[in-house]
Amino acid sequence: MNKVEISTEFIKLDAFLKWSGIASLGSEAKMYIQDGLVKVNSEVCLQRGKKLKLGDIIEFENEKFEIV
């Protein structure tokens, strides 16, 4: 599992995809989310602005990322 460190209380899902390198552009992140390709804590998430916090697990293309 990949660990991704954030320095704020939370990060929005679309920003997380860019921060972690999953998406290179905001429009790319938006597309991944709208297409149902991203899971947050094992559930498909279609909310771009979903607030992620420490301990949340994000899944994309069989890779897992934990916010630390």
UniProtKB/TrEMBL annotation:
SUPFAM superfamilies: Alpha-L RNA-binding motif (SSF55174). Pfam families: S4_2. Keywords: RNA-binding. The lineage of its organism: Bacteria, Bacillati, Bacillota, Clostridia, Eubacteriales. It comes from the Bacteria. This is RNA-binding S4 domain-containing protein.
